[in-house]
Automatic annotation (TrEMBL):
InterPro entries, sorted: Nucleotide-bd_a/b_plait_sf (IPR012677), RRM_PARP14_2 (IPR057050)
Domain PARP14 second RRM span(s) in chain numbering: 6-83
Organism: Dicrurus megarhynchus
Protein name: PAR14 polymerase
Lineage of origin: Eukaryota, Metazoa, Chordata, Craniata, Vertebrata
Length: 139
């Protein structure tokens, strides 16, 4: 168990629960308010939503509550902590972008970045994989 728990929880198999219903469900379980205390990002391509808590909570306990909740089980959703990663994918990049620019951009502390160890450009996809020296730079 990491002493530094992630503030994000992944909800899988969300297709039977509308975005508004999911937000209300998470408010009911957490006792918190969407937008003020947490955000929900939908990733419909992979049938997933990510709740990121702005207010500090015990996310491990929250995942446990979700797995025991009859409504969550009724929707056949699962909840788990978002794994910390050192690599992120940047998409919809301009045609003319360099690895140097991306390195400097993602190393900016002002935008939540950190030391970058590698940048792989994929010009045909207008995307790049950015690998940080540690997982703290990928917020």
């Amino acid at each position: 168990d990491s002493a530094e728990a992630t503030p994000s929880v992944v909800f899988e198999n969300i297709q039977t629960c509308s975005p508004n219903c999911l937000q209300m469900l998470l408010e009911n379980i957490s006792g918190l308010t969407v937008d003020a205390d947490f955000t929900v990002e939908l990733i419909p391509e992979i049938n997933v939503a990510v709740a990121t808590f702005i207010k500090s909570i015990d996310t491990k306990e929250f995942v446990k509550k979700c797995s025991q909740d009859k409504r969550v089980r009724g929707f056949k959703m699962t909840a788990r902590l978002l794994e910390l990663t050192q690599t992120i994918k940047a998409e919809n990049l301009p045609d003319i972008i360099s690895t140097g620019y991306l390195t400097v951009y993602f190393e900016s502390e002002r935008s939540g970045g950190g030391p970058v160890s590698d940048v792989q450009l994929f010009p045909k996809e207008n995307s790049a994989l950015i690998t940080f020296c540690d997982h703290k730079g990928n917020t």
